[in-house]
Amino acid sequence: MTITLTGQQLTVADIDALGRGAGFVVDAAAVAGVDRAARAARAVAAVRPVYGRTSGVGANRDQVNASPRPGHALLRSHSAGWGEPFPAPMVRSALAIRVNQLLAGASGASEALLHALVEAVGADDGQLPVVHRRGAIGTGDLTALAEVGLTLLGERPRGDGTLGTPAPLDDADALPLMSSSAFTLAEAAHGCAELARLAEVAMAVCALSFVALRGNPEAFGPAVAAVTPFPGAVTAAATVTRLVQADMVEPAHIQDFFGLRTFPQVHGPLLDQMGILRRVVEALVNTGGENPAVLQADPPTVAHHGGFHQAYLALAVDASLLALVGSAHTIASRISHLLTDAASGLPRFLAGPKPGSSGLLILEYGAASAMALIREAASAARSIQWVSVSAGVEDGASHASVSTARLGEAADAYRQLIALELVAAVRALDLGGRRVSGELAELVARCRHLVAEVDDHDLAPSVADAVDVVDHWVSTTPLPFD
């Protein structure tokens, strides 16, 4: 797989693949556009003030930067990130996003900066810049990209502790490099891809629980499309129906508990929201949102603007986390009913025959713990936590970068929930003598060893193995919006 970076067509799937080391090439016509924008920016700066090129930044916007190397000074002064470093795949994805944004042709950055970033994207993990996760507030990843800039200049060590050969960057490259939310967008893209795949896996595991609990298919039937006219709900209902249709028996209840009965209406919003988040991310990685924007008119000009502000992204991420809460709650609900629903005909806690056995009782606790983490990730919407900095000049930051960091944390907890339901559903199918067919039979065959021991025993290995099964399943699941 070779991805062509053009500045116009980078997708979430591409970003995910680039983070994993996919090959790429850079479109030659787009590179020529970068050079034209750089020449245009120099021409404009020769006749009028241009923010960050002839002036200071922030509240210093009306002052001339008197440093002999103002661009280098700007990178040094902003290189104050903190917290854990981003993992290598995230750094590589962010650098690829930054390359693609420069190729959109509105930054005024030099070809030297573009080529330095291209080289960094293709570098081994140990030669990538060390970039710290914290420090951005939703108006550009200033601290993170300043660290990248100093690494390209050979002033900061790379991941392996070595200094690279200094890139011949122009002083005017500093602000165009920093005027981006590339790392925030990389986290959003990876979180979107991970949650979209997990949401696909969750539907199959729900189907296992449906069979084990003798669910009522009416809630997933054709009427769902009419009474819940949303794409995600229709997809969720159709997917579960397709997976279980050969294995349905007389339902246990006239209508099921919410974790089964309302699954299409509650899981559907997550499927829909992943599509919305994907579209927002893809719009932002394929635009020249740098401030100021270089407009290659005749004569060329620049526009000072607020396109770097990530309000759209913050709202899309927050909505995704809220949608995840509902889907996750249905999983916790089904785990509880698998363990304790008397009408299922299954032993309490799916325990063995010895009186007083705890069986899988503790899985309900694990599910509650994971739910607490997901609720916490979604409960304080970052898109409303605006802040004012730089003497009130920058008086409305969205904290999008905090929201995107929560996506990965929430995805980890969601993965754990799915794994816990998988263990409980496979045990319930086994104890109830229920058989499944098709794709579900293949899944159960891969998981039967997780519940081979019926008497009370150390459950940690089974849960860990179930997480591995889910991870493998996710890694082989195509993105639903490819």
Question: What does this protein look like?
Answer:
The strands form four sheets. This protein has a two-stranded parallel sheet with strand order 1-2. Strands 3-4 form a two-stranded antiparallel sheet. A two-stranded antiparallel ribbon has the order 5-6. The two termini are 14 Å apart. Helix 1 links the parallel strand 1 (2-5) and strand 2. 51% of the residues are buried. It is built from 17 helices and eight strands. It folds into two domains: 2-180, Fumarase C, Chain B, domain 1 (Orthogonal Bundle), CATH 1.10.275; 188-475, Up-down Bundle (Fumarase C, Chain A, domain 2), CATH 1.20.200. 54% of the residues lie in helices and 6% in strands. The protein is mostly helical and 482 residues long. The longest helix is centred in the C-terminal third of the chain and has 32 residues, at 400-431. Keywords: Lyase. InterPro entries: Aromatic_Lyase (IPR001106), Fumarase/histidase_N (IPR024083), L-Aspartase-like (IPR008948). Its EC number is 4.3.1.-. GO terms for molecular function: lyase activity. Pfam families: Lyase_aromatic.
